[in-house]
Amino acid sequence: MIPGFTLRAMTWNIHSAVCPAGRHDLQRAIDLILRHAPDVVAIQEVEGRNRPGSLPFTALREALGGHAVEAPTLRAADGCYGHMLVSRWPLEEGALHDLSVPGREPRTAITARVETPGGALRLLAAHLGLGWGERRAQAARLAALARATADPLLALGDFNDWEPHGPVDRAFLGTLPSRTRARTFPAGRPLFALDRIYARPRASLVRSWTDRGARAASDHRPVIAEVALLPEGEARPTRLVVA
Question: How far apart are CA 134 and CA 117, in angstroms?
Fold first, then answer.
């Protein structure tokens, strides 16, 4: 185990790989992710329906790390839609957790464990609903999943939380003490920090940023963060950068 090992995490809603001009281009999204070289990446709005000959979940897994847990939430005869977690290291204990609220779009959370060169890390990935009450219930479920382990943990995703201290922040209070702050939506001139990375312990979130160039590929900007896996009791200053 490497003490103080730092990894790179990323989350991005790729908007079904459709750019603002309306053109589908999954490779453009893949290329942008590869530029940041994340060790783990959560990807939302992966669209495989109405894409003849396209296998986007497979293409993303093979291009970005080789290990993935997929969470298809909408299925059709020709493919499915959902989100996924991809890692350069094997993902252990991968599981899907139903967050769906009756009458709303199905939602699923992903949990997994990854053994990094710096030690074990738990991962939680989600794409939450648009309704306030729906999101509050889903955030409470996510917080319960986070409390179920004492390991260092990252929660990544599009939380669709428009408020500065909305239901997701409140649910994670005391459980995931550190989070990114970059505004990510809409990509051209972002007003809202919908896409976030939460971390435990607090000092593990070292630096974070976004990428303006993503506006050519999606309606969201990504969030990228450097995360230090620290020995127990060791403190490290946190420096968050919004680009």
Answer: 37
First to last CA, the chain: 32
Q: Flag whether pLDDT at 133 surpasses 50.
A: yes
Q: What is the mean pLDDT of residues 152-158?
A: 98
Tokens of 92: 């252990």
77 against 171, higher pLDDT: 171
* Chain Cα centroid distance, residue 195: 7
Partnered with residue 98 across adjacent β-strands are 108
Contact 13, 44 (CB under 8 A): yes
107: left (phi over 0), alpha (psi -120 to 50) or beta: beta
Q: What is the mean pLDDT of residues 66-89?
A: 95
Q: Evaluate if residue 236 carries a pLDDT over 50.
A: no
- Using a 10 angstrom Cβ sphere, with 0-12 exposed, 13-18 middle and 19 or more buried, the burial of residue 53 is exposed
pTM of the model: 0.93
